[in-house]
Amino acid sequence: MSKLLEMKNITKRFPGVLANDNIDFSLEKGNVHSLLGENGAGKSTLMSVLSGLYKQDEGEIYIKGEKTNFNSPNDAIKNGIGMVYQHFMLIPRLTVIENIILGIKQDNEPFINEKKAAREIQEIADKYGMDIDPYAKVWQLSVGEQQRVEIIKALYRGAEILILDEPTAVLTPQEIVELFNMVEQLLKEDKAIIFISHKIEEVRNISDKITVLREGKKIGTVDATASKEKLAQMMVGREVVFTVDKDTVSLGKEVLKLENVEAQNNKGLKALDKVSFEIHRGEIYGIAGVDGNGQSELIEVIAGLRKADNGSVKFLNEDITNKDPRTILRKGVAHIPEDRQVCGLVMDMDIKENMVMQDYHEAPHCNGSFMDWNYITKHTNDLIDQYNIKAPSEKSEARNLSGGNQQKLILARELHREPELLLAMHPTRGLDVGAIEYVHEKLLEARKEGRAILFVSTELDEIMNISDRMAVIYEGKIMGEVKPEEVTKEEVGLMMAGTKKEELK
Ligand SMILES: Nc1ncnc2c1ncn2[C@@H]1O[C@H](COP(=O)(O)OP(=O)(O)OP(=O)(O)O)[C@@H](O)[C@H]1O
Ligand SMILES: [Mg+2]
To answer: Distance between CA atoms of 124 and 182, rounded to whole angstroms?
Structure first.
């Protein structure tokens, strides 16, 4: 039987990087074939070759046994290939409809027929159980909703092979269930999925086959029954520990105190409702919750990026409510933002420029008038080594780093500033197992040095492992504050769904 897709001997080079080295990959109808591999292993590149975004240097692609030649994403779409990129490609100020029909002509329609498009979009959404408002502007949507738009866009264009590049990294547990239901539905229709994720368990659950890449090479293809340990070993080339080892650290003075903080979200609705808690030196304070329950707004209010309507934020006993972000930063607050491509990095700048973005105007980076590029270059290379950032040099543009390496770059920059308070929003999102282990070590090190860390994550296991105390947030309200060792996962799950701590049995 001929395969739906065969990629043979694919090689793709970038200046100074062999991103894909002679890789074979195939896919059958009705199957899920996943790609696993460390950050920078070459997964997105291989898929971008398949989606026509990049042209391979060597190798061939066969669709249903026929050799194809893609010169653009449109060629790939014509061949039934749709890709949902790791970093979405939507235009925020346009509506869902406009984004979906952008660049394609409607049959026999001289003008864009919005109503017709809206109807068709709604049909696809209903069929696959996705909830979306076609008339909403993309910037108003949550990340999960934006992803739905990307998926609908691919299906609207007739995708038979749907490539999902780390779709679950940005989804809530509930949204992941919905995504997987949609995948089941697509498979029943004999479509096929290529799935990329760093979450090994989820990959094992959803896949028929798994291919592991490491440093641009294919390590092997195995059945989804392969053990978690074996897959991790294939990915990283060594054994990986999956648990966090914490020393006890005695609590120091209070670093951050929130009292009855209230704020609105982008849609003008109440996002934070009388939020109060405090964090001390040497403490990791977790905020657990399903994404979109006020976590982003909470971090933004503390960082001065969003106005608090009520209540107060105190940093080392000083009122910093509604101070501007730069002032807050300079007092000793560091921030690992939720969206590394929008707020974390300037994608057109290179690594060294990004590394000193927060303090380029101060010594030792600058002598008052001139930037000291020699110092900055050395400093950046030290951090590249220390944080194991995979890049050809300090002059590589941030946009050319793999997703995980972009995240490491932000982490290096923010931790190196030795902040009193670190606001860490999904700091391990999109990282491979080895890198997650590393970030956890770094955060524990920072905790040991007496820093206060506000750790926001939707991964229950992770947050319960790493936090000293944690609060569960639901619809902008704190449902309760707990110590991880004093509650069960189920109890936290209930609180995430809106049960107050006092109501737990
Ligand atoms: N446009 C580009 N220009 C130069 N180098 C690139 C470009 N895109 C990717 N690379 C490099 O190619 C290698 C593979 O990157 P790729 O994005 O495919 O990794 P990945 O496996 O998807 O990693 P992650 O899990 O972090 O997303 C990396 O070293 C990356 O820096
Ligand atoms: Mg990638």
So the answer is: 11
Domain ranges of the chain: 5-236, 254-332+420-428+452-505, 337-418
Q: Report how far ligand 1's centroid is from the alpha carbon of 347 (Å).
A: 14
What the block records as the tokens of 227 is: 């053990």
Nearest CA to ligand 1 atom 31: 401
Name the residues around ion ligand 2, CB cutoff 5 A: 44, 86, 403
What is the four-CA torsion angle of 331, 336, 340, 346, rounded to 10 degrees? 30
Predicted TM-score (pTM) of the model is 0.77
Nearest ligand to the C-alpha atom of residue 430? 1
For residue 430, give the ligand 1 atom closest to its CA.
Answer: 25
Cα–Cα distance, 27 to 61 (Å, whole number): 12
C-alpha dist (Å) from residue 310 to 275, 313, 473, 480: 10, 10, 18, 20
In this structure, which topology does domain 254-332+420-428+452-505 adopt according to CATH? Rossmann fold (3.40.50)
Q: Is 323 exposed, middle or buried (0-12, 13-18, 19+ CB in 10 A)?
A: middle
Q: In which band, very low, low, confident or very high, does the pLDDT at 141 lie, cut at 50, 70 and 90?
A: confident
Residue 162 CA to ligand 2 center (angstroms) comes to 16
